[in-house]
Amino acid sequence: MSSFRTLDDLGDVTGKVALVRVDLNLPMKDGSATDVTRVEAVKPTILELANKGAKVLLLAHFGRPKGQRYSTMSTSFVQGDVEEVLGKEIMFIPEVMGPVVEQSIDILSAGDIGLLDNVRFWPGEEANDREFAKGMAAHGDFYVNDAFSAAHRAHASTEGLAHHLPAYAGRAMEAELKALEAALGSPEQPVAAVVGGAKVSTKLDVLENLVGKVQHLIIGGGMANTFLAARGVDVGKSLCEHDLTDTANRIMDQADHAGCTVHLPYDVVVAKEFAANPPSMRVCNVHEVASDEMILDVGPQAVEALGDVLKTCSTLVWNGPMGAFETEPFDAATVALAKTAAALTQDGSLTSVAGGGDTVAALAHAGVKDDFTFVSTAGGAFLEWMEGKALPGVAALTA
User: Fold this and answer.
1) N or C, fewer C-beta in 10 Å, the chain?
2) Of the listed 5, 52, 134, 199, which one is catalytic?
3) Are 211 and 260 a contacting pair, CB within 8 Å?
């Protein structure tokens, strides 16, 4: 990864205007946020700039207004939540450029914070319109991107602004990029990747990129059934993409040529119905799955063997659960493997980086979210990075 500028590279910013792209797309219920993790993530950047005397203008999107103004999607809805996390009052500014923004900047003192309205109210945002970006840039002295979760989008506020102003990575973005570099950029080998989830079709590019980069590919979740079927295993009523068995075989061949070991479960937890603690639940060898049974988790022997694999590795990248973890007891494999990875990380023998919505939920459920080296809350951006794609918002910072 080429180097990018961080807040450490900033000179004196007293009285200067910082345009800071953050992710404030918070889940809401009854007018307030149900989860402020995204605000917590950008708090260090915002307060550092404010404490250094900059006038901080926050740029964010909220929902998908598609270039139209909707009062229900104004960023003013999250103003109170942001103020609470920051412990500071902020000024709401109902535009992103023009005289209203200019007047607001004049009212703000050094160290004050303003929240601009939803950048997606303007069609120029998602179109990454050069003139729109230029219009926003006219108000700022420099640009800081602290929204990795939006870095896979080439929008005016995530990519365009970097072409008009000196651009820097915020603290959350910096931590994310350093973690990703340690995981797949120039990782310490051997590297293991855990890829789970329901469908192979949504992770094809990820799998094809990883087999050339990691020494161990551990496949779990519903997608493991497709790989087992490709190996001639009868998976009964299990979730399985039978039309992708040729693709699964091709990926396994690529792995063979690249010296990557693909780990599929050899014992599994099955049941005749998908429900919590069903009476029909049992553990069996993958070749003993009955035609009316479905595979819902990886078995205990396979999990133990996978734990032993992790003990030989220096780096782990994790995306997706091992089984149907939302329903007990089909969370057992995910929890057990996550706890092993967390313990190895705490011992200092493993660098562990995990990401994606389901993954964060699964690690939180296992009680080890804080014990991994780094957990990315980004969904799409994390997946595209695992696919080996350049992220426009990141590339703009290194230009």
Assistant:
1) C
2) 199
3) yes
β-pairing, 191-195 vs 32-33, is: unpaired
Residue-level pLDDT at 339: 98
pLDDT for 2 equals 56
**Residue 380 is a catalytic residue:** yes
Residues pairing with 354 in the sheet: 318, 375
pLDDT tens-digit series, residues 256-306: 999 999 999 999 999 999 999 999 999 999 999 999 999 999 999 999 999
Domain assignments of the chain as residue spans, ordered by start: 7-172, 187-386
Fold entry, domain 187-386: Rossmann fold (3.40.50)
Q: Which of 15, 259, 357, 367 is catalytic?
A: 357
Q: Is 34 exposed, middle or buried (0-12, 13-18, 19+ CB in 10 A)?
A: exposed
Q: What is the CATH number of domain 7-172?
A: 3.40.50.1260
Q: How many beta carbons lie within 10 A of that of residue 292, not counting itself? A: 11
Set 63, 236, 307, 380: catalytic member: 380
> How much is the pLDDT for 73?
94
Beta bridge partners of 91: 114
Active-site residue flag, 199: yes
Q: Which single residue is written with the structure tokens 């260090």? A: 44
For residue 187, give the 3-state DSSP assignment. Answer: coil
Full-model pTM: 0.86
Report the distance separating Cα 235 and Cα 331, nearest Å. Answer: 19
Q: Is 357 a catalytic residue?
A: yes
Taking the alpha carbons at both ends of the chain, their separation in whole angstroms is: 12
For residue 7 the two structure tokens come to 């807040």
